[in-house]
Design brief:
Order of helices and strands: EEEHEHHHEEHEEHEHEEEHHEHHHHHHEE
Bound molecules: adenosine monophosphate, zinc ion
Shape: globular
CATH superfamily of the largest domain: HUPs
Number of domains: 3
């Protein structure tokens, strides 16, 4: 399996630290609002990476944090007259709902920054002891960036070049030893959440959170660290500096970064006002469509979001789901059980699409090509099945289609719809129950039907039903 590694700027063969296992950390959102569709991109693409590893037989320990203490959260809490904790808890819940609707699997662990403060204090103390960090008079702790000789290895930046670009923004009077030093711990301001520490009452810097959570849940050395490309510098560069200075080993073997999502070919940003929340998109489309739309592009490419492209994604997804539904129907209504010889050959041919799919995924998770293989399989199924097909054959094809869609996190199994005859039978039972004055049973049957989206109406001509 090949993975493009931002560290080497090359596709590299994936070799896990521990055989058969993958330790993976994905930087999660700051929870002060509903997530937007840009935040959804890393969730969807790295969930798919995880699903493929699992399909390939790896055991994946997948950790993704929620940043639940941050200036933006505090600002929102002040605006709403509530606490930062209430704001972050609320939006974590909403985020998890969006993730479920996009069929993003829950992480093995979703740590919260606020629950990991002791680990952060420990790592910061360790960095101070090792000479990689220092405290200034107000209790702020800074990382001594130049002390870490590998600084810049991920973003391929050189501090001296950066310095030339940054000279104009030197902060006069700061106690920082150097412009490139960044905050590990900062003193509280009035009304802000804070924790006790050896340096001052305050809170951690953003970068230290991820170094500590990755260490706690995955260990000092991890296989894959991922996030959006905007995080390469400075966030991931700083995480490397902190973790490697403290732990003395390579932090992550592979660094994966997704490209940005743009809207109508413009950078999507809150300040420009051109962004959509996942919730808004969910009002118009099944969020499976958003997932499918994202996976039709390579994860490293920039991706443009527009109404037309979403419509195209919806049509593509419908094509796959219709083929799956047809296969299911044929499985249920097949007149013969066993393969013909010709069917056996066709099924073997259908397996070549699995190979194509795998080859695409093994090449740096090329989901665009993997989806092409799924479309080819759909075409093949439509061409080579009919009402005379045997059950063994059509269920074999369905299994292949479902297997590949499962890896992409695309749900194709049709919702079990109640047949009219079953509904009529239940209505009959309810009538019987009413006749016997067993109203509890009659109500239970009505509720059971309602749960299936069937509404009963008692009319003068008898009981009528309709779909909700
Ligand atoms: P944030 O809450 O801004 O820290 O973002 C959480 C994750 O979403 C990070 O991995 C970001 O890189 C990613 N992200 C934010 N905006 C976009 C975007 N427009 N396109 C793709 N990824 C994004
Ligand atoms: Zn992070």
């Amino acid at each position: 399996m090949k993975i493009y590694n931002t560290l080497s700027k090359e596709k590299e063969e994936f070799v896990p630290i521990e055989e058969g296992k993958v330790r993976m950390y994905v930087c999660g959102p700051t929870v002060y609002n509903y997530i937007h569709i840009g935040n959804a991109r890393p969730m969807i693409v790295f969930d798919t990476v995880r699903r493929y590893f699992e399909y390939a037989g790896y055991e994946v320990n997948y950790v993704s944090n929620f940043t639940d203490v941050d200036d933006k959260i505090i600002k929102k809490a002040v605006e709403e007259g509530t606490t930062a904790e209430e704001v972050s808890q609320r939006f974590i819940k909403e985020c998890k709902k969006d993730m479920a609707d996009m069929n993003v699997l829950p992480a093995t662990t979703h740590p919260l920054a606020t629950q990991e403060i002791p680990g952060m204090i420990e790592m910061i103390s360790d960095l101070i002891d090792k000479g990689y960090a220092y405290v200034v008079s107000d209790g702020t702790v800074y990382f001594r960036t130049r002390r870490f000789s590998d600084y810049g290895k991920l973003s391929h930046k050189n501090l001296d070049e950066l310095e030339a670009g940054h000279r104009s923004i030197n902060v006069v009077g700061s106690e920082k030893e150097d412009d490139f030093d960044f905050v590990l711990w900062k003193p509280k301001k009035d009304g802000e959440p804070y924790w006790d520490s050896p340096w001052c009452q305050g809170r951690p810097g953003w970068h230290i959170e991820c170094s500590v959570m990755a260490k706690r849940y995955l260990g000092d050395e991890i296989d894959i660290h991922a996030g959006g490309e905007d995080l390469i510098f400075p966030h991931h560069e700083n995480e490397i500096a902190q973790s490697e200075a403290a732990n003395g080993v390579t932090f992550s073997k592979y660094w994966m970064h997704n490209g940005f999502l743009n809207i109508d070919n413009k950078k999507m940003s809150k300040s420009l006002g051109n962004f959509f929340t996942v919730r808004e998109i969910g009002e118009k489309y099944d969020l499976q469509v958003l997932r499918f739309f994202m996976l039709q592009a390579h994860y490293r490419s920039p991706l443009n979001f527009s109404a037309e492209l979403m419509e195209a994604a919806k049509n593509g997804l419908d094509r796959i789901c219709t083929a799956a539904a047809n296969l299911c129907y044929q499985v249920d209504h097949a007149k013969t059980e066993e393969f013909t010889q010709e069917e056996q050959q066709y099924l073997e041919e259908a397996h070549t699409y699995i190979d194509k799919f795998k080859a695409a995924m093994e090449d740096d998770f090329n989901t665009a090509d993997a989806i092409s293989a799924v479309f080819e399989l759909v075409k093949f199924c439509n061409q080579h099945t009919d009402e005379a097909s045997s059950r063994a054959y059509v269920s074999g094809l369905y299994d292949i289609l479902k297997q590949l869609c499962d890896v992409l996190g695309i749900i194709v199994s049709p919702q079990e719809e109640m047949l009219d005859a079953d509904i009529e039978a239940m209505i009959q039972q309810r009538q019987e129950a009413r006749k016997n004055k067993d109203f509890a049973k009659a109500d239970a049957i009505r509720d059971a039907l309602l749960a299936q989206g069937i509404i009963l109406e008692d009319t003068r001509e008898g009981v009528k039903w309709k779909k909700a």
